[in-house]
Amino acid sequence: MIKRLEKKNKLLCTSRKYREANQLAKIRKLKLSIIGKHGGGDNFEKLQSSADRIKKLSVIVKKFSPDITISFCSPEASRVSYGLGIKHIAFCNAPHAEAVMKLSVPLIQKLLIPKHIPKEEFTKYGISKKNIIQYNAMDEYVIVKGKIHRSTASTLPLFKPQTILIRTSELKAAYFSSQINIIQIIKKIVNKFSDCNVLVLGRYSDEISYLKKSLSKNITVLDRVVDSGEILARSDVFIGSGGTMTSEAALRGIPTISYNAIPNLDEKFLVRKGFVKRAKNSNQIIKLTKKLLNSDKGKFQKNAKLFLDSMEDPYLTLVNTIKQLKYSSTKTKNSN
Questions:
Q1: Are 164 and 199 in contact (CB under 8 A)?
Q2: Cα–Cα distance for residue pair 334/336, rounded to 1 Å
Q3: Are 139 and 314 spatial neighbours (Cβ–Cβ below 8 Å)?
Q4: How far is it, in rounded angstroms, from Cα 249 to Cα 247?
Q5: Quick one: fold of 2-137+312-335?
Q6: What are phi and psi for residue 167, nearest 5 degrees?
Q7: 231-286 per-position pLDDT tens digit
Q8: Are the CB atoms for 250 and 300 separated by under 8 Å?
Q9: What are the residue boundaries of the structural domains of the chain, listed by start?
């Protein structure tokens, strides 16, 4: 969306110091202003980091003086935009992120959400239905339709005929509460599928170090950020926590298992549609993995393409919403 917006608009793109976001921006050649840092897993550190970021962003945004803010329900973007009187459009597919919703949704002018998520999931946080706009797509549509960028995933030595990719949970998110032991799951998978490449994609530097120490040398723990499309293209089965990459894998036609570490409406939607298989424990994961490794991959890809082609482009909804807000602002000024 940034690449498309910058063709006709002057943009200020900000992020915070966060391993995956920063390295992915480099892979995808996005110029970001890094303001502040991620607060980690501690509530006090989250609060301090957010306050520091709001202070720094307020100075930079005031100087840039934008006509509009676009975010993924960022609490800091919401507070700064509200304080400076800047209209704010936000995307969101995660009403389960209660802390973020309470801090951002009440201050947003327009909220853009996937059609399969009821508006009521957001109105309870303080926004009226008329200011929520739905589009017939999943957010991952934009990722899957976008360009795959070359990263270290292309140089991974995969010697065995099939590859299982495992994605760890968002352990440091405020909404994380799963009791699933990912280490146990990974060890069982390696024991049962010794004839497969087993790749583990972690999120945080300390988590990756721990995984490397805890797991055998028969497992490849990726210590560099990779382009998701590139690594998924090399995978025969994807096992994820039910988040963004789980949705992306399914939309790319990769046989996908969710261990549902963070129950959410996207995951439920894809399970209901049959694009994701849910497993409640390690035994179910093993059973499903075996079944999917022997499945018809072409059928998965064909079904995923049909599903993807039925969706609309969320970017067009964004452009229309920007025009609406611009028109309403002009109308208000003229009436005054």
A1: yes
A2: 5
A3: yes
A4: 6
A5: Rossmann fold (3.40.50)
A6: -110, 130
A7: 999 999 999 999 999 999 999 999 999 998 878 999 999 999 999 999 988 999 99
A8: no
A9: 2-137+312-335, 152-309
